[in-house]
Design a protein that fits this description.
About 30% of the residues lie in helices and about 20% in strands. The protein is of the alpha/beta class. It has a single domain, classed as 3-Layer(aba) Sandwich (Rossmann fold). A seven-stranded mixed sheet has the order 1-2-10-9-6-3-4. Strands 5-8-7 form a three-stranded antiparallel sheet. Helix 1 crosses helix 2. It is globular and about 45 Å long. It starts with a strand and ends with a helix. It binds 6-phosphogluconic acid. 6-phosphogluconic acid (6PG) binds next to loops.
Length: about 250
C-alpha cells in the first residue's frame, strides 16, 4: 500500500475492499461508542461489490442493530432488477447480516412519481436525524464511487443537480443506463463526517487524476469537500496509474 495523505493505493480491488472493511469496523465502532448509532450511506456500481462481500463475511463483531444504512442514489427500476442499487446491496451485504429492516432506509421508486420518491427519501433522512437531535443530516460515513466521466452518486458533469442547495435528494436524468435516478445532493454529501471514495480500474485513471490533482476541476466528484469532515480515496493501481510520482509516493 502507498499512502500519501488521504490517498491509499492498493494492488487491486481486493486490497481496496479489505482496507475499506478495516475502516468500516473502526468508524462504525467509534460512532457507536460516541453516539450510540452509526449511519452509513452506500453506493451502487461494480467497484464496491468486493467490499460488500467481505464486510458480509467479516468475523469481527459489528453492531448491526445500531447501524443504519442509507443509499447514495438509486436507479428507477424495481428492487429485483439487476440494476437496482438496493437489490445489489441487499444481495451482497444486507441479507447476510443481522440488520433490522427498519434500519435499512431504501429509496423507494415503485408506484410513485420520481418527485414523490425523492421527497419521501429526503423526509426519511430528515426524520432520522431529527430524532437523533441533529437539525442538518450528518452521516458518519458516505461511500462514493467515481465514473469514467467524473460523476459521483448520480451527479453528472454539467448538470443543474450540482447546483442544488435546498433538497437533500432529487430526481435526475443520468448520462448512462438506467437514466432515471434519485440522488443525494452536495449539501448533504458535504455535511458528512467521513467520505470514502472507492475507485478501481484503468478506465477511471484520467478522471481520478483530474479530481485529485487539478484544483480547478469542475468534475462532479471534485465538488466533494466536506465542510467539517474528511475525504479518503481508496484506489487500485490501475486507477492510480496516471497520478503523478508524488501522489504515487514514488
Ligand atoms: C450508481 C453509483 C455511481 C457509481 C459510479 C461508479 O448507482 O451507478 O452510485 O455513482 O458509484 O458510476 O460505478 P462503477 O463502480 O460500476 O464503476
Amino acid at each position: 500500500m502507498i499512502n500519501e495523505g488521504n490517498i491509499f493505493v492498493f494492488d487491486n480491488n481486493e486490497g481496496v475492499a479489505d482496507y475499506a472493511v478495516t475502516e468500516w469496523i473502526e468508524i462504525s465502532s467509534q460512532a457507536i461508542v460516541d453516539k450510540g448509532y452509526f449511519s452509513a450511506t452506500l453506493s451502487g456500481g461494480k467497484t464496491p461489490v468486493g467490499f460488500y462481500k467481505r464486510l458480509a463475511a467479516s468475523k469481527d463483531f459489528l453492531s448491526w442493530d445500531r447501524t443504519h444504512i442509507f443509499f447514495v442514489d438509486e436507479r428507477v427500476v424495481p428492487p429485483s432488477h439487476r440494476e437496482s442499487n438496493y437489490g445489489l446491496i441487499k444481495e451482497r451485504l444486507l441479507s447476510h447480516v443481522k440488520i433490522p429492516d427498519e434500519n435499512v432506509h431504501r429509496i423507494q421508486t415503485e408506484g410513485i412519481t420520481l418527485e414523490q420518491s425523492a421527497r419521501r427519501y429526503e423526509e426519511d433522512i430528515r426524520r432520522f436525524f431529527r430524532n437523533k437531535g441533529d437539525s442538518m443530516p450528518r452521516f458518519d460515513l458516505i461511500m462514493l464511487g467515481i465514473g469514467e466521466d467524473g460523476h459521483t452518486a448520480s451527479l453528472f458533469p454539467g448538470k443543474s443537480s450540482l447546483k442544488e442547495r435546498t433538497h437533500l435528494a432529487i430526481p435526475v436524468t443520468a448520462e448512462k443506463f438506467p437514466n432515471k435516478r434519485i440522488t443525494l445532493t452536495l449539501p448533504v454529501i458535504n455535511n458528512a463526517r467521513k467520505i470514502m471514495f472507492l475507485v478501481s480500474g484503468r478506465n477511471k485513471a484520467r478522471a481520478l487524476k483530474e479530481i485529485v490533482e487539478d484544483k480547478k476541476s469542475s468534475l462532479p466528484a471534485s465538488h466533494v469537500h466536506p465542510k467539517q469532515g474528511i475525504v479518503y480515496f481508496m484506489i487500485d493501481k490501475p486507477a492510480a496509474s496516471l497520478l503523478s510520482g508524488r501522489k504515487m509516493g514514488q
